[in-house]
Amino acid sequence: MPGLLSYGAPPPSPPAALEVVKEGVLTADGTEQELVAVAGLAEYYGLISLDRMTVGDKVAVSLYVKMTAEGEWKRYRRMEYAGPQEDPVLHLLVKVARHGFRVTLHQFEGVPKTFEYCFYKKL
Prior knowledge:
This protein is an all-beta fold. The protein has a single domain (24-122), classed as Jelly Rolls (Sandwich), CATH 2.60.120.510. It is built from no helices and eight strands. The chain has strands at 18-27, 33-38, 42-49, 58-65, 74-82, 89-97, 101-109, 114-122. A hairpin with an 8-residue loop joins strand 4 and strand 5 (74-82). The chain is globular and about 45 Å long. The termini are far apart.
């Protein structure tokens, strides 16, 4: 019996090799806090868990890049989340960053929470 590949389906792609850049747990303190800051040409991925957020909590996650090696951090995206999240794991993808990639978290309302996170780069 012929398999799916014989019907023109592309062969399955192997999973990309990933390397952990940084992982941990951040306890919010009311300021903008850095989760990760890295340099080097790569494709970066990140996961942040917002599962401990409750009614009254507000969080901002900001993404930054450096355009040149000596450059300043430039924010290119800020996302706000309020209260409990239906899908509490935030998946971040930076297509490519060469001179620097940075992610911050700022809990600006509510009782301070802890946030688990993990960042990877594609090899």
